[in-house]
């Protein structure tokens, strides 16, 4: 099989140089975790803590004011076990 393509009038493609990083540590934990958010300039970030069967154990929205943001989240009320984070 042979294919032939032609492209006409391409004016440009905008590069996406925005990198967003959500770091949460330590994991596993029995207490507070540190949340580091980079590249979320003045955005609301929805953070979820999930169980191993994807049940939402905790969720909150964090307003990031600046390009680098650090906060803590206390998870001492959760039962010990495997947890996942979603930003």
Report on this structure.
The protein is mainly beta and 87 residues long. The chain has one domain: Sandwich (Immunoglobulin-like), CATH 2.60.40. It contains no helices and six strands. The strands form two sheets. Strands 1-2-5 form a three-stranded antiparallel β-sheet, with no helix packed on it. A three-stranded antiparallel β-sheet has the order 4-3-6, with no helix packed on it.
Question: In DSSP terms, counting alpha (H) and pi (I) runs of 4 or more, how many helices?
Answer: 0
Low-confidence parts lasting 5 or more residues at pLDDT below 50? none
**Secondary-structure content class:** mainly beta
Specify the overall morphology: elongated
CATH architectural grouping: Sandwich
Task: Annotate the secondary structure layout.
Layout: E1 21-25, E2 32-38, E3 44-51, E4 56-63, E5 68-74, E6 83-86
Antiparallel strand pairs: 1-2, 2-5, 3-4, 3-6
Structure characteristics:
single chain; 87 residues; mainly beta; Immunoglobulin-like; three-stranded antiparallel beta sheet
Quick summary:
The chain has 87 residues and is mainly β. The protein has strands at residues 21-25, 32-38, 44-51, 56-63, 68-74, 83-86. It has a single domain (21-86), classed as Immunoglobulin-like.
């Amino acid at each position: 099989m042979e294919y032939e393509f032609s492209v006409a009038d391409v004016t440009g493609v905008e590069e996406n140089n925005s990198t967003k990083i959500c770091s949460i540590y330590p994991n596993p934990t029995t207490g507070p975790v540190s949340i580091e958010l980079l590249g979320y300039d003045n955005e609301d970030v929805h953070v979820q803590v999930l169980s191993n069967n994807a049940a939402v154990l905790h969720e909150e929205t964090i307003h990031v004011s600046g390009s680098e943001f650090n906060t803590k989240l206390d998870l001492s009320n959760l039962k010990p076990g495997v947890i996942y984070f979603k930003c």
